[in-house]
Input
Amino acid sequence: MSSRLIVLISGNGSNLQAILDACARNELPASVVAVISNNADAYGLVRAHNAGIEAIDFPKLETESRRDYDSRLADYVTTKLPDYIILAGWMRILTSAFLDHFPNRVINLHPAMPGMFPGTRAIERAYEAFKQNRISHTGVMVHLVPDEGVDNGPVLASEVVAIQHNDTLESLEERVHEVEHKLLTKTIKEWILSQTTWKSFEDRQTIKSIGSENGLIVFDDFHEAGARITLEKDGITAPWAITCGSGGLFVHTVFFETKEEAEKTSSLMKFDLWKILKIPNENYEEIYASVKQFVKKY
Output
């Protein structure tokens, strides 16, 4: 199932273009249903129009407060039925009047590592710090936006970008943007699939079950690239967030004693609680044995 994305921009929109291109290549299990900008002159609106996607100029009115604007924006975005909202160069801090409508569904891109250079001019500030011998690298991060904090939400992914001695600000910006384009699309895909696994558990979609008196492992069908696995034992279904990837099996695992405990913590699984177990092939019996061994260890 393809997720519906709303992309918020304020400027050139090169990261928007990376998302559009990834969708067109079917690399993202998603489609961009609308692009919204608070800046009527943003070139990203042209990119959206050229791609046949609704491009919306949504300026703040002079009479509006920040919260009033965000509330009006949230009402408009809701009409587009989005699964996720992507902030790709959106130069406004969103208040709870917007964010409370979309918990764990607003994803932001920031051109710095976690905790470094929050706010505007992050690449320029990193370059200045490098020239003062205070840092040797900068980076890119993608994170959730749960509240009004500036570039400090739960981190979904990050990547270091080294600063070279012969760098100019322009050459550093170019390399950072290259990393942004790849990391953003990769992280959006991973987040969509991780959330889809959770939905499959709630929907009780099952493709295979194996097990014994020690517990039953249920393979839940959620996307064509793999399976979500849960563990049932003693009348309790424990949500094992386990995702099979391509090119060898990557198993992401979280255990909770009760479903209620899992529901309370599900939003944290991606970035705080996941442990990774590699299994060399897709032999179900081997998966079963390996998971049981993994349980004893953790």
Summary: The CA atoms of residues 151 and 178 lie 20 Å apart. The two ends are 33 Å apart (CA to CA). The chain has nine helices and 13 strands.
